[in-house]
Specification:
alpha+beta, Thiol Ester Dehydrase, Chain A, two-stranded antiparallel sheet
Length: about 130
């Protein structure tokens, strides 16, 4: 399985008046990790567009285990677990020092042919090539 780890230090502008990260910011952390994962096999968003496909997120789940706090150093693990018909990426946010799991979730993306605007029923050859499945 392809996976990456992305370190993030929680910025002040992400916390709410209760001094914890606002729940909507987790989406940004997943996106940051997802971009790094996709770039790791040379199929980032620019390469997607160049190949003629968009990959919108069609489903996302987040389980909040423990709050993230200002200036906390966390690691967002991302792992590509499905790619034949869609992209499913699992995430785990953990404290960088203790390793304790703070949140976990996943996203699902599907390929859309940018010319026809139709959803593809299987992953396009461009992705399979990047993953070594030609």
């Amino acid at each position: 399985m392809l996976s990456t780890e992305t370190e993030i230090i929680i910025p002040f502008h992400d916390v709410d008046p209760m001094q914890v990260v606002w729940h909507g910011r987790y989406v940004k952390y997943f996106e940051t990790a997802r971009c790094q994962l996709l770039e790791s096999f040379d199929y980032g968003y620019e390469q997607m567009f160049e190949s003629g496909y968009a990959w919108p997120v069609v489903d996302m789940r987040i389980k909040y285990v423990k709050p993230l706090r200002f200036n906390q150093r966390v690691v967002v693990e991302s792992q590509l677990v499905e790619w034949e018909y869609r992209l499913k990426i699992k995430y785990r946010i953990r404290d960088a020092d203790s390793g304790e799991t703070l949140s976990k979730g996943y996203t699902i993306q599907v390929a859309v042919d940018m010319e026809t605007q139709e959803m593809c029923l299987e992953s396009p050859p461009a992705l399979k090539k990047k993953l070594g499945e030609t």
